[in-house]
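thread: overnight batch results

M.L. [08:02]
morning all. the overnight job finished for the chain we discussed friday. pasting input first so we're all looking at the same thing
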Amino acid sequence: MLEPEYFAKKRLQLGMDREDILTQIQATLDDWYPGQVRAKKLHQGTLRLVTPNSSVASDLRMRQIELCTRHALTETRVAITVGSLN
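M.L. [08:03]
and the structure it wrote out:
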């Protein structure tokens, strides 16, 4: 029988922890801008955020360093798009 640590290690090796990180980022975004921003994707060092509001997008650009340091994403680029949340 395999140990639980084996699966946790494999999950990290395969990058499957991104879902957990996105969930945490979304919780922060919901706290800052309730219902106005979605964390769409974290892939190859780029965090993609979408908002339908251009003023929220501007504010996000100013707070992107705060967001990345809060979630220990030091080598991450943030791409903010104005568009539909769906």
